[in-house]
Write a structure and sequence with these properties.
The structure is a single chain. It contains 11 helices and 8 strands. By secondary structure, the protein is of the alpha/beta class. The protein folds into 2 domains: 160 residues, 3-Layer(aba) Sandwich (Rossmann fold), CATH 3.40.50.720; 117 residues, N-(1-d-carboxylethyl)-l-norvaline Dehydrogenase, domain 2, CATH 1.10.1040. The protein has an 8-stranded mixed β-sheet, with helices on both faces. Helix 9 runs antiparallel to helix 10. The longest helix has 29 residues. The model has no long low-confidence stretch (mean pLDDT 95).
């Protein structure tokens, strides 16, 4: 099948960027904005999306739907999309590109396929392509090869295999390292802050772990604005680990750290209004202030 028209749900930070580069490469890009924020609406219009009045109309006009959402919304969208697929009676391709566990991907596959759609398992690695990132879409499943027509059109498509869950598994393992490591950094620096040892630890890190210190200082201040999206992602990673018999506790702990970051005054920031002058250390101070010190020295 020749893919020409692509529906993207939802055109948020990643979704609108993917749609923008695909549009620049000749694809017609659409979305539905029912229930979406004013910021999402602005991003979609700025990127040149065609706006459908509802999901059924989006299904009618699209050859492929790409679901690019926070993990906690992926099941809800799949169920709504399944209803629209039944209503329209179209065997449309549906690529779930969200950070979900392999078992969650299998559940979503059943929802879409039982409605008459054609499910593709996907996982995104890398930042939004309009920021100069080489955004990789790992895809798997019986219908995954259809996504190859998007390869080199502002994004990179990597076929993993013919089983649902393989692409999601790659995303889970990768994010377990990257976003999981960020929470470990926040946790240990918060402990140092609570113990009054920040300056001493910072001096030691500068002496023996300069590369890690550089990563902390450049990355931690950006975490609060993304924390609300990554809480669910850590839950899905924990599920993935537990499903294969590995302890989920690393990433259950990561959930708690992202909840703390989401409770800071900086969590409402967006890429457009983020305070680029705020330091990692100011971010850690805000996190530490949310935690009472349980064991006071006598």
């Amino acid at each position: 099948m020749d893919i020409r028209t692509i529906g993207i749900m939802s055109p948020g930070d990643m979704g609108h960027s993917v749609g923008q580069v695909l549009k620049q490469h000749g694809f017609d890009i659409g979305t539905c904005l029912e229930g979406r924020s004013e910021r999402t609406r602005r991003l979609a219009l700025a990127a040149g999306f065609n706006i459908a009045p509802d999901l059924s109309e989006l299904v009618k006009k699209s050859d492929l739907i790409m679901s690019i959402l926070v993990p906690s919304e992926s099941k809800h969208l799949a169920m709504e999309m399944a209803d629209s697929i039944r209503q329209v009676g179209k065997d449309i391709y549906f690529a779930d590109c969200n950070a979900v566990s392999p078992n969650t991907a299998l559940e979503l596959s059943d929802v879409i396929n039982n409605a008459g759609g054609r499910f593709i398992d996907g996982g995104i690695i890398g930042g939004p392509p309009t920021r100069g990132e080489q955004t990789r879409f790992y895809v798997s499943g019986e219908h995954a090869s259809i996504m190859k027509c998007l390869d080199g059109k502002g994004i990179t498509i990597k076929l993993v295999g013919d089983r649902i869950g393989q692409a999601s598994g790659i995303k889970m393992c990768y994010a377990a390292l990257t976003k999981g490591t960020s929470t470990l950094q926040v946790a240990l620096l918060t402990v140092a802050q609570k113990l009054g040892l920040t300056d001493c630890l910072r001096e030691e890190l500068a002496y023996s772990q300069q590369n890690n210190l550089n990563l902390m200082e450049s990355g931690i201040s950006r975490l609060p604005s993304n924390a609300h999206r990554w809480i669910g992602e850590m839950d899905e990673i924990a599920k993935t680990f537990e499903e294969v018999g590995v302890t989920p506790n690393f990433h259950l702990g990561a959930v708690e750290i992202y909840k703390l970051l989401n409770a800071t005054p900086f969590s409402d920031e967006t890429p457009e209004n983020m305070d680029k002058d705020r330091t990692a250390w100011q971010t850690i101070e805000a996190v530490a202030s949310l935690i009472p010190l349980k064991n006071q020295n006598k």
